[in-house]
Every structure is written in C-alpha cells, then in structure tokens.
Amino acid sequence: MRITVLTGAGISAESGLATFRAVDGLWESHRIEDVATPEGFAADPALVHRFYNMRREDAAAAQPNAAHLALAELAQRHDLVLVTQNVDDLHERAGSPEVIHMHGALAGALCAACSHRWSAPMVMSPEDPCPACARPATRPDIVWFGEIPYHMDRIWEALESADLFAAIGTSGNVYPAAGFAQHARRHGADCVELNLDSSANARDFHRRITGPASRTVPEWVASLG
C-alpha cells in the first residue's frame, strides 16, 4: 500500500515544542511579520536569528514521542512518503529513513545572497559569512510566509499516487498543505485526519480520529497491519 503522510506542529507538541497557533504559542510573543517573513529578516536579522537560535535549542533538547516512533515503524512495513511542515528533526531521530521538509529545517543554513546551503551551527548571527561567497547574508533555511515551500513537485506526485493519505497534527489553515487532502482524494486516495480537534479543512477527509498523536498514531499504524 502506498501511503503519504503529512505531519504538522501537533505531532511535536507532545515532545514539548511550542506550536504557533496555540494560546501560549510562538506567535503570542512574536509577530509573524517580524520573525517569519523576508521583510522581517531584512529589517532586523539579529531578532530573527535569536528567534531561530532559541527554536534550534528547544528542538535539540526535545525527544521523539510515540507518534514519531510509530511513523518510523510504518516506513518499515509500507511504501511511505513522509512530508512534514515541521522544522525540527524528531522524525529523523525516531528512525524515519526519509523525511520531506516542505518548510525547511532548523538544521540548515542558507545564504540570502548566493543561495548556498550548509549545515547550521546551533547559534547563528547576521555576521556569519557564507562559506561559498563570504558575504554576511546567512539566514535559517526555513520557508517563511510569502515564500514557496520546498519539494512541491515531489509532494504532488506522492499525493496523486497514494492509496492512503493521512494528515497528523495539522491546523488546515496554511496552504498549500491545507489542500493536500482534497488533491489526494481527487486522485482516489482514502483520506484520514488524526488531530486533537477538527481542522479547518476537516470536510476534505473521509474520516477523523480524534485525540493526542502519541496515542492515536500508534493505534492507527497498528490497525494498518
């Protein structure tokens, strides 16, 4: 069976990583425009680097939970394409052999001048020179609002060929990911949502499993045989 899974912030929340949209989430203390847009980076790169340095530190201290581990197990038994909106590496540390990070990753650095990419250190600053062009234009390799997510051609292909599509811990508010269920369903996939509550695009799924990911995902994976 060909399975495509999309994970969002909800799957890592149980590992202690703050989501953006929760009442006490990351947006409560930072404006989106200030820390997650190219314009915000241009206006105050030091603020943006401080924000992502803290997120990198938090992600390094977090541990994969039962949901991450269950998806790694699923990859051993089925033809799985795992797509995540998350920028942490918990899927990789849980043992998932391949993860498509559509919004980039905290582990990556990107030169805003020449587009060179390299592994990010734990702490980054605006003065860091690019290893390729030496210009101090280092930014996190994160897809910000107004930018195009990574690997979209591959993701659309996975959705179109999937027998089963599952969205786990996603809000259904952010496109293009919010349109994945509709696209997969149009191409014949069975679509299931696993979430604490109904997402904004709940109507696009055939069924819904409600509850914390650390419980529902292992149970769902076990049910697939």
Automatic annotation (TrEMBL):
Residues 1-225 form the Deacetylase sirtuin-type domain. The gene is cobB. This is NAD-dependent protein deacylase. Pfam families: SIR2. Zn(2+) binds at C111, C114, C130, C133. Substrate binds at Y52, R55. Its main location: cytoplasm. The keyword Cytoplasm applies. It comes from Paracoccus benzoatiresistens.
